[in-house]
Amino acid sequence: MKKILMLAACLFAVSAISAQTQVIAHRGFHAKSGSYDNTISSLKNAQELGVYGSECDVNETADGVLVVIHGIMHGKLNVQKTDYATLYAQALSNGERIPTLDEYLEQAAKNTATKLIIEIKDHSTPEQETRVVKNTIAAVKRHKLQNDVEYIAFRQHVCDEVLKYAPKGTKIAYLNGTLTPEYCKGLGYTGIDYNISTMKKHPEWIKQCHDLGMTVNVWTVNDTAALQWCIDNGVDYITTDNPVEANRLLGK
Ligand code: MG
Question: Global pTM?
Answer without folding.
Answer: 0.92
